Amino acid sequence: MRNGGMGLDLQALDDMARRCRVSIVKMTHAANSGHPGGSLSAIDLLAALYGTRMKIDLNDSNWFDRDRFIMSKGHASPAVYSILHEIGYLDESDLMSFRELGSVCQGHVDMKWTDGVDFSAGSLGMGLSFGLGCALAARMDDSERNIWVMLGDGEIQEGEVWEAFMAADFHALGNLNVIIDRNRIQNDDFVHLQMEVGDVAAKLSSFGWTVKEIDGHSMKEIVDALQWAESHNSGPAAIVANTVKGKVVSFMENNPSFHGKAPNDQELALALEELK
């Protein structure tokens, strides 16, 4: 994977995303806590990123020139852990210990605990600033590593995010790529009821970013957009991915209740049946 991604085709990527969805509902059920909705909306994007683009070393998670992935909306940790399980950094028992004291799978992603995690999340809004620093460091190191940052659309209500957008354009960081999981639901309710963020693509363009808007559940569109972003070297690139919170699990889809609620026994059984 040092050359970029696992070389998976579209069908293999869809299959991996489905397995990850199974892991997401199982681990949140086992913990009786967590954030399944935003993990399910993001997982197609992550499957494509790791399956086709990420340059990492499966035998050395600290390889200096590896690409960096920053899950700024760090509560969507089940999505990250499910991918790390797929590529071999985590095993099934790690997933099933999600949110237990001492587990490598903490509630928010944490680089001190988990191989393959490059950012310790907590309060939202910090990930892009961290990614900006990683991109500048790569330039100073004369490294070709790429930096990928995933943001939530509720998260981009925060001012620090827009300061980082502005700084990234100023520094012409062609190695910095943002993916916005635009599922339109945040912690308390729908985004437009809390603080409407409006036309995100137009706002990013006005900040000097090159932007592509896609269907965040069309694997072909995702793969094409990731390739486009990585090849755009003159400045930072952003993918605004229109997604559905809780995608594929019927009772979670577009349901604010499952932003941060685990499925019960009956709901787990239904989810697994739908994910066959």
Main sheet overview = 5 strands, parallel
Strand order in the largest sheet: 1-2-3-5-4
Which value, in Å, is the CA radius of gyration?
Answer: 17 Å
The CATH topology is what? Answer: Rossmann fold
Helix and strand string, N-terminal first? HHEHHHEHEHHEHEH
As a percent range, the share of helical residues equals 40-55%
Question: Residue-averaged pLDDT, rounded?
Answer: 97
CATH architecture annotation:
3-Layer(aba) Sandwich
Going by CATH, the homologous superfamily would be Thiamin diphosphate (ThDP)-binding fold, Pyr/PP domains
Features:
single chain; 276 residues; alpha/beta; Rossmann fold; five-stranded parallel β-sheet; 10 helices; globular
Give structural notes.
The protein is of the alpha/beta class and 276 residues long. It has a single domain, classed as Thiamin diphosphate (ThDP)-binding fold, Pyr/PP domains (Rossmann fold). Helices cover 42% and strands 11% of the residues. The protein contains ten helices and five strands, in the order ααβαααβαβααβαβα. The protein has a five-stranded parallel beta sheet, sandwiched between helices. Helix 1 packs antiparallel against helix 10 and helix 2 packs parallel to helix 3. It is globular and about 50 Å long.
